[in-house]
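Weekly modeling sync, notes
Attendees: S.R. (lead), two postdocs, one rotation student

Agenda item 3: backlog of single-chain predictions. S.R. asked that every request posted to the team notebook include the full sequence so nobody has to chase files. The rotation student volunteered to paste the first one in as an example of the format we agreed on. Action items at the bottom.

Example entry:
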Amino acid sequence: MRQFALGDMVLQMSKPARQNLTTGVIPEMGSRATAPLLLFLGLLFIFVKISEKRATLPGPSFCLGIGPLISYGRFLWMGIGSASNYYNEKYGEIVRVWIHGEETLILSRSSDVLVSFIINSCRSSAVNHVMKKGHYISRFGNKRALQCIGMNENGIIFNNNPSIWKQTRPYFAKALTGPGLRRTLAVSVESTRNHLEKLLGGHNTTSTCVDILLFLRAITLDISNRLFLRVPLHEGEIVSKIQKYFDTWQTLLLKPDIFFKFKWIYKKHEKAAQDLQDVVEELLLKKQQELQEAEKLHDITDFATDLIFAQTHGKLTADNVRQCVLEILIAGPDTMSVSIFFMLMLIAQHPEVEKKIVEEIQAVTGEREVQNSDLQQLKTVESFINESMRYQPVVDFTMRKALKDDVIDGYPVKKGTNIILNLGRMHKVEFFLKPNEFNLENFAQNVPHRYFQPFGCGPRSCVGKYIAMVMMKGILVTMLKRYRVHSHNGSTLENIKNNNDLSYHPNESHSRLRMIFTPRNQAAA
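Predicted structure, as returned to the notebook:
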């Protein structure tokens, strides 16, 4: 019995020792492991919440920063226009992506869905909201790129300084409206007629193969010079420099900062921009000399004169004056010439449309040249121009930056967010009866402005929208009164290679684009 009691006592004495080992060591080990585990769970919770917040907008996932790298790379690789279409097609009409690490929204919705419109008719559409609000008057792009092409805080196209932009824009508005607008048609007709006669050498009986884009660029440059600068210039040389300047503009605009740390990489682009700036500087010097020698300033007052006087009085800097003249000269050769090229190609592909246009021109103008009083009667011509810009736009998007916090279509938008308004896609997903085909029936009735905005609207809309329409009508009517146009070697808009970066334009790197001009008297015979 004593042996058993002794053994039992030993057993009882050993239990507390084991309990102390368990209760003392295990809590100490648990406390060491709990802190990192809680920290990890806390960080994971925060990351999930941030991801959920970012995911409220449709678009690619942030995914630890991989998403922004991929979306930015896509814009560099595909071009702005093509990448915007890609993301809208994949994710919908409002998409969140990243460009250069900055959150960017791509919008292509002109109106809310019908149910939302009925429930709340005061709700603004996404695209119209951005275009009409004053806190979206800034644009975005790499600052080094804008400095290289002279647009950083100069001119009006990509001037990102709102105060300087507001100070500069009135000079453009004055030049592109009023007396300047009334002169535009006569100048456009005369320039087109002169270039046609010069090109054909006075022979109106044979067909001629024309380098069409070079021809249209020369005409639009001449018109711009006659309206806004009025000094002698070498058209061919300047047209070539404008093309290189535009290539530089779209190549550099979204490049990363590191690209500009190696000057040998972008040296040729820098030279291309500087070459055109130097030419414009020389033209301004000629203009200044004319002003000094003029007996009556009234006879030579124009856009360039107003800018020079503003510089003299300290209202504009010399760099800003040069950039303003550069921008007003490149608008025609840069975008309008390509727009008219697309229109001529559509005419060549649709002879029934050409027949309607020519019949209307003959009924309205007869044997004389088109006049300002005729423009309102050229309904078919206007419908054709609008349908061409809708179906085959040159500038099919516009870029903006939010200057303050806002809400777009129910989504919060932070100050500094980039905005791309995909107008070309908007024109093909809403309202029109036959959105995916070229058809004048799309403009058989008046189209509400919110559904068709080739020039934008609001405070940063295209300041030259009215004069552009007059120029296009003058050039087209003058050409079509005299010539029929045919594509060369079976070219169509569908088989021509195009780039869709800063604008939608033909790829001219391989071959020149040509069209056949046949005199109407020969075509009729």
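Discussion: group reviewed the output briefly. The chain has two domains: 59-137+396-453, 162-378+468-524.
Action items: rotation student to repeat for the remaining queue; S.R. to check formatting next week.
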